[in-house]
Structure formats: structure tokens, C-alpha cells
Amino acid sequence: MANRTLKDAKNVHGTNPQYLIEKIIRSRIYDSQYWKESCFALTAELMVDKAMELRYIGGVFGGNIKPTPFICLILKFLQIQPEKDIVIEFIKNEEFKYVRALGAFYLRLTASAVDCYKYLEPLYNDYRKLRRQNRMGHYEIIHMDEFIDELLREERVCDVILPRIQKRHVLEENGDLEPKVSLLDDDLDEEMPSEDEEEQLQQLKKTDNSKHQSSKDSERRRSRSLSRERHKKSKDYRRDDSPLRKKYRDERRERDKKRSPDRERRRSRSRSTERTRHNRDDRSYYKRDRSYERDRRRY
Fold first, then answer.
1. Is residue 239 part of a domain?
2. The dihedral of CA 162, 163, 164, 170: what is its sign?
3. Strand, helix or coil at 296?
4. Which spans does this entry mark as compositional bias, Acidic residues (predicted)?
5. What are the beta bridge partners of residue 61?
6. How many structural domains does the chain have?
7. Strand runs (DSSP E) across the chain, as ranges?
8. What is the CA radius of gyration of the chain?
9. What local confidence, expressed as pLDDT, does residue 24 receive?
10. CB atoms within 10 A of CB 82
11. Dihedral, CA atoms, 97, 100, 105, 111, nearest 10 degrees?
12. Position 152 in a domain
């Protein structure tokens, strides 16, 4: 009897509200110690005290599928089915962030698509940190706006399959929702320059570009003139009538004149001795060749 839904409760999405949580997880919650000790005979007024005691969010963890207090209170919400005004007060609570997260999760499970976007999108401006327990039992840090974004976009959050809702642009086309207005639009409008400022910026850019182009042209002209001068110098040096070339030629002639006749004679003698040696070597070679042919004829 303690695990049954109240008689006055209405069906949500065409089914019993408790059936929105899978049977395996639901049976684990019924067998957990937190459900038996803390969730027994809870009412909507007493749920506030239990929600204020939360220190993290999460679904189930561990190999034995142990439920967290957060998912246990969600199931208790589905069982007693509080009024919509109470859930909205949970969402508007700015002092206790886990109370707000609990109300947002319950509203996402039970409310229509229009109410989900209407009451959950303002929570994008809440950047407070939340502690979440993952499936391995470890804790991780997320932010409230990330949690709300997961509720509106993901299919499974905290190990619970969320009911499908229509996309926002479809509701806007049908006229059920007004176009989304972000708080950042005002800041962007302030930062955007006016028309006069844009014209001034464009003129400054044009002048900068012209100056840059003129500096480039001057550098190119300078480099061309330097290359021409270098080319001319190289040509002058290679010509026969250059002063350096003449000087080198005159010095060489003077050195040739200063050579002694004895030196010339020695050079001629050395050349003649080399020729005679070469001729002797040739004769000895021919003699060897003839002796080899004679020996060959004998045998």
C-alpha cells in the first residue's frame, strides 16, 4: 500500500505517473533504506525539508543498482503528485539549488512541451555548480544550465528515460511559443557599432591599406634599383677594359719579363730529359714485346 500511487492522482502521458521510471529502478528504490526510512508517509509540505537536505543529484550507481536520494524523491513526487503551483515554487527557489533541480526534473517528466520551455528556459541564467553521482559511484561537477540543457535535449537523464517533447521551432511556428529572447542580446547590441562608426572604421581600413600598399611599392622599387646596380658592377668587373683587369694583366707581364734566361734553360732541359726518358721506356717496351713473340714462336 505504501508504494502505490494515490487514488486522486491523474495519469501522466497516458500512464500511471510512477511508471515513468523503469520497473527495475523502481523496484530497487522500493527496497532501498532511504525510501523506507525517509520517504514513508511524505506529503508535499514535508517534501521541502527532504529536498533541502540533498547534497547531490543522480540516478542509480554500482553493480547492485543502488538508487540515490534524488531519484527516490522524484519517485515520491510521482506517487503523491503535488499541485503545479508547488512545483513552480520549487523551480523559483534561488536559495537551495538542489530544490530547484528536483522541481525542474519533475516538471520535465510530467508537464507539456510548452510548460517545459516556459519554466525551464529561464534557468539557463543559473550558473551554479551541482554535484552529480555517476553510474560508477564517482562524483562530478556540472552547472545548473548544463543540467537544464540536458533535460530539454537529451533522451535519458539520471538513468530515467524522459518523455518526448516537440522542438521549439515547431511550437514557434504554431504560435504556441514566442521567439526566444536571450539576455545576451542587450550586451551584443551595446557592443555593436553604429552606422557612422562603421563608416569611419571602413575609411580607416582603406587608408591603412593604401599606406601599406605604397610602402610595399617603395620597397619593391628600392630592391629593383639595388639589383640593377649589382648587375652593372658585376658586368664592369668581367669586362676586359676594367681597371682591375688591366692592373692584373700588367703585373703578369712584368713578372714574365723579370724571369732569368737560366730559368728558361732549366725548364727546356727538364722538358728534354722527360722526352728522352719517355722514348727509352717506349723502346724497352718494344724490346720486351719482341722477346715475348720469339719465345712464343719457339714453343
1. no
2. negative
3. helix
4. 190-200
5. 66
6. 1
7. 57-58, 60-61, 66-67, 129-133, 139-143, 156-157, 160-161
8. 50
9. 92
10. 17
11. -170
12. yes
What is the average pLDDT score of the chain?
80
226-235 contacts, C-beta under 8 A, 24 or more apart? none
CB burial readout 253-289, b (16+ within 10 A) else e: eeeeeeeeeeeeeeeeeeeeeeeeeeeeeeeeeeeee
How far apart (Å, rounded) are the C-alpha atoms in residues 150 and 168? 15
The parent domain of residue 160 ranges over 17-185
Question: The C-alpha cell of 258 is what?
Answer: 723579370
Kindly state the cell numbers that stand for 65: 543498482
pTM here is 0.62
* Separation between Cα atoms, residue 254 and residue 242, nearest integer Å: 19
Q: Is 170 left (phi over 0), alpha (psi -120 to 50) or beta?
A: alpha
The three-class DSSP label of residue 151 is helix
Asked if residue 171 belongs to a domain, the reply is: yes
Q: What percent of the chain has pLDDT above 70?
A: 71
Q: Using one digit for the tens of pLDDT, what is the confidence trace for 33-53?
A: 999 988 888 888 888 899 999
DSSP type of residue 15 = B
> 257 or 285, which is more confident?
257
DSSP label at residue 12: B
CB-CB neighbours of 140 under 10 Å: 12
72-89 pLDDT, tens digit per residue, is 999 999 999 888 899 999
Q: Does residue 4 lie in a domain region?
A: no
DSSP codes of every residue in 194-253: -HHHHHHHHHHHHHHHHHHHHHHHHHHHHHHHHHHHHHHHHHHHHSTTSHHHHHHHHHHH
